Amino acid sequence: TMTEEPPAKQRRLAVKLSASAEVNEGSRTTRKTAAATQVQSDVASAPRAQAPALRTERKNPTARTDSAPLAPASAPRARVQRAPAPSADGEEERTTHKKAKVARDADECGGDEERAARERAYTAIGSATKRRDLIWFNQLIAEFAQRRQLHLALMAYDALRGAAADDLRPSEFTFASLINACARCYEPEQALWAFEEMRKQNVAPNEVVYTALLKAVCQAGMLEKAAELLAAMCAEGLEPNLRTFNTILRGALKHGCKQAIEDTLVGMKKREVNPDASTYEYVVRGLCACGDLAGAKRAATQCEDDGLLLSSTANAALATEAATAGFRNEAFAAIDRVLKPQKQQQQQKKTTATDVKAQNEQSTSRKSLALFSRHQDKAARKQCTLVREYLTRAAKGASLPRYVFPDECGMLAPTLQGTPTVDLHRAFSNPLQPLFIELGSGAGDWIVQRAKKDQSANWLAVEILRERAHQIWSKGVLCSVRANLAVAAADALALLRSGLPNTVRATGVFVNFPEPPPSATSAEAGEANSACSTLVSADFLRLAHAVLARSGTLTILTDSKRCATIYEHALEAAKGLFSHDGPTWWIAAVPADYGTSYFDQLWKNGKKSERYLFVLHKD
Questions:
Q1: Among residues 77, 97, 264, 615, which one has the fewest Cβ atoms lying within 10 Å of its Cβ?
Q2: What digits encode the pLDDT tens for the residues 543-580?
Q3: Beta strands 506-512; 548-558: pairing state
């Protein structure tokens, strides 16, 4: 936390970069445009850090990057070598080209409002450069990180480097915010570059910097690299704290790495770091996803012994794993811990709901977190109800069937085991049935519903995160959907590229809600600055076209108008691959029988009803 703040006027400018204020006509507009143009010119001519170029596609199909299109040529999408300084005429021509590119990008993905927000950001960076104010630079980079605007965070850092002198150099706060921006935009390579840049600037990292870096690599599944960084952190005399360890556990949970979970627990015990409720949640869920029910039960017991309350999400995972593994009593015990307190929780909500004024005074971020927490609890209760119905259907006293993930219906393929193809003959009872594929299936609500409803077709769920793949597989077991449902814990693009046999063609490919729910911070920035998936790219469209049968259909559903616009431009650029019915690429109405998903329910709880449905026919 910074101990001093920028002047009030500067701070207001920094924290309202994305405000929807109107730009006055006349001289004020001229001054702002001129200032923004000058900032672009100043930043372009400043010495550039040699960062690797931002990727336009990532391994995780559900991963997100900053929503705005990449900044103009003035943003620090770093080059390996700095080009020679152009002449005055060349500089003028280059600046004109940049301004035109900014206008094109803004018009395509946000229009005047987006362009105005971008101009305000450039103006703020220029003001920080002019005033040579490190505190303000740090504040700007932190704000851009919160809004997942990595290109602007890099631009602010580039401007700071250009203005650097003995009295103005990047600090540990600067790099902590910059690495956090990389982490929030799912750019681990950029985060590692920023860390090396910090070393080159002779700035010593602290616990906050290391934790942000660990977040970047762990959420990308780079857990071996995380272990190296943790060892380096300790070798430098820095003590990892609870947040550091929880960051590693969260990554190990998502990617199903049992060894990383066990090693982290050993490290916590060695350094006498006491776990909290989040620690136990990550451990229980992670071990359940890895099929270690005994280890998960031990962790749950230890949580109770420590006087902590295990979350409903973790108990739901325990109930699910116990039921699918054939342990009836353990499953019912976990169910009771979730469903029995429901009446008491409802009564507590009634008493607290009377204080309307306090609720109205909550910040947008707190309301967003509260919404997400309520939805998580609701999803846990729904899952426990599903488990209870499964147990009730089984004959009382009879042994439950035992299922172990992965099996013929749940595969770690192709990227996690190196398997060249998904074996459809092994996965489906009748491999000759029409094949439908959902990419980025999340928790599997939608595809399990569809597979249960249409058993005359085969349904393949593709999800890169191990925990989610396990959830989909478990739902199939609990809903008795096994013959025509398969799960591949794999990267979506890799599966389309080489994970299916050459002779296999899909009748349909679905992508439902590729965007995540807004975080507490991005929600404040508004939809124009929220994260947006990069899955629907030119490469993806070519791969989807290749895997589809002659009359196949690609269906994309999103709730974001901004992302719908981006998808439209990608489809326009890929002419000849797909066609659509009607005057536009998308329709605003979703068929009643389309089905629902985790994110669909989340948005409905948040009173967000906009939907954009793309139904694309292979040409």
A1: 97
A2: 999 999 998 999 999 888 888 888 888 899 888 899 99
A3: parallel
